[in-house]
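Researcher: Here's the sequence for the chain we discussed earlier.
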Amino acid sequence: MSRGQPVYDERFHEGVNIIRGHNGSGKSTIADFIFFILGGEFDDWKDAASRCDEVQAEISAGPTTLTLRRSTDSKLAPIDVFFGDAEAAMRHALEGWERFPIRRRGTHDSFSQLLFRNLGIPEAQSEKASNITSHQILRLCYSDQRTPSSRLFRYEGFDTQGIREAVGDLICGISGYEAYEASLSLRDKQRELEEISGSLDALLKALPPDQALRTPQTLYAQMQELRAQKETLQRDAANVDSNVRPEEIRGFLKERTEAQARLEKARGRTTQIERTIVDDEYELREIEAFKKYLVDLSEKLKIAEKASEVIGSIKITHCPSCGKPVQSSENPNECDLCKSPRDLVQEKSRYGRIRFDIDAQIRETTQLEEHKIAGVADAKRKLRYLNREHETELAEFVMKYSGANGPREAYLASKNSAIGKTDTELKYLTRDLDAVLEVDRLRSRRTELDAEVQSLKNRAEALNKASQKRRNVALGRVSEIAVSLLHADMDRQEEFTAAAKVEFAFANDAMSVDGKVNFAESSNVFLKNSAILSLLLAAGVDREFNHPRFLLLDNIEDKGMELERSHLFQKLIVERATELTAPFQIIFTTSMMNPELELDDYVIGPAYTKYRRSLDL
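Model: Thanks. This is the structure I predict for it:
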C-alpha cells in the first residue's frame, strides 16, 4: 500500500505459487513484503518498496483466517490483526482490529504467540526463550538473495548458535523449547553462581580470620550478654548515692595514685619504643647504604673482569717506553712484555672468589635489612597500640580523677565509661553481625545454586538423551529427501550424484553432503534450496514436525544457475510438493520460467518486465 492505495494486489493459493519476471522487475520486493507481513524483522527496502508505507495480507493460520496490516516504518513495527478475511476487515476500518508487538512484552501476547497457537507450534514458557519468534522460524523458511548460499538460515547481523539450534530442533519436533530453556537457565544459574562465589570469596578475604568463623548465634549471644551488662551499669549509675560508701573515699585516693603510676609507666614504655624505632631506622639507613655499595661493587667487578679479559687478549708488539719491537713470548702463561709468569686460571678464579664473597655479603645484608624492616614495622604497630591505650587511660583518668571530682563523680564516670565501652562493643558486634549474616546468605545461596546447576545439568542430559531418538528419525527423513533431490540434479556435481547423506548443523548454520561443504556456487544454491525444501517435504509426511509448511524461495537462479538446471529444480519442487496430502504453500520467484509450469494452477500475476513492474507506482 502507498498512501492508502494498493500497488500490488494478488491472491496466492495453497500449493505451489510462482512469481515470474525479468531481473529487476520487483520479484524480490514482493518476497520481502511477504516475509515482513508474516513477522519478519526487515527494513532494507529497495527504492520502489521504500515508497510504500504499509503492507496488508490475508493469511490462513491453521484453522483461522487472519487479516494483517503493518507499517513499513520500522523492522520492529507491530502488526494489526483482524480475526477474519480481508473483505470483512475492509468493513471494519478501526473496530475489531487488535495490535500485537513483534516480540513479547510483559504479559501482552506477541504476534508470534498468536501465530504459533494457531499453527500448533509450541510456545516458549520463559521470558528468555521468547526470542524464538516468527522471524526466527521464517529464517529457515525464506531463502533470499542477500544470504550466502553456504548458510542454512537467512542471514542477520546479530545471531547466536543457541537460537539457531533451538529453531532447528523446534521445527524438527525434537525437543520444543525444553532443551533451549534448560540451557538458558543453566547459563544464568552458572553466571549467578560465579558472581555469588566471587562475592563470598572477596568478603571472606576482607574479614579477619576469627570473624569469618563466627556464626550469627554466637554474636546474638554476645550482644545479649552486653545488653544485660549495660542494664546493670545503668542501674548502678542510677543508685550512685546508695552505692558510694565512706570507705570508698580512701579507695578512691588509692586508685588515683595507682592510676597515675600506671600512666607514667605506660608513657615510659612508649618512650622506650620510640627510641628503639629511631635507632633501628638509623641502622636501616646504614644497612641500605652498605647494600648499595656492595651492589655497585659487584657491577664494577663485572666491568673489571671484562676489561681484564679484553686487555689480556691484546698482543704487545712494541715497548710502550722506548718504542722498540718486543719479542713475543711463545709461552701462553708468560707476559709478552716483561716475561713474568702468568696464571690465567688463577686470575679468573680470583675474580670468581671476589664475586662469590660480594654476593654472599649482599645476601646477608638483604636478610638483615628485611629483618630490620620487619622489626621497625612491628615496633610501630606496638607503638600505635600503646598510644591508643595510653590515650584511653589518660581520658579515663582525667574524667575520673582530675579537678573537683570526688568519689561520687568518679563512680558515675566509671559507670558511664563502662556503658560507653559496652555501646561501642555493641556497635562493632552489630557491624560484624551484618557481615556474618551476609556471609551466611551468600553461603546458603551458593549451596542452593550448586544444587540448581546440578539439577539443570541432569535435566539437560536427560532431555538430550530423550530427544536423540527423535533427532535421528527427523533428520534421517530430511536427509533421505534431500539426497533424492540431489540425485535428481543434472550431472554437474559429482558429490551430489554419489550422495549418501545430507547433514544439517543448525547451530553452525551449515549443511554438508557426506561431510563435504565446499562446492561450486551454483551447486551450493541447489544444495541449500534442496535442504530447506526437504524440511517442508518431511513435515508434510511427519506430523511431529513443527514446520509451518510454508516456503519462500527467491534465489533458485542465484550464483550463475544454468537455465536447464533452474527448470529442473522448479519441476522438482512441483513434483515433490504436489505428492503431499497435508496442506502447504510454496512461493518461489524466477526469471527463468519453466514453460511446462506456465499454468494458472501455479503462476501468480503477470510476467513482470522493466516496463511492467510488480509494484504499480
